[in-house]
Amino acid sequence: MGMKQETDAPNGWLAERLKMGSATRVSQVVGAVARPPTSPAAEIFKQLSERLAT
Fold it and tell me: Which of 4, 5, 39, 43 has the highest Cβ tally under 10 A?
């Protein structure tokens, strides 16, 4: 299950907490992760998930 499926937090809030820059960047990453797991975004999602877990 993805980050946006787990929370109702706005992209701006997520971007600030994850130090991703902008809300647009969160949207881009979440969209990219929705693609097949072989995409380069899968590694980004893994890293973000690890940050959220700590």
Answer: 4
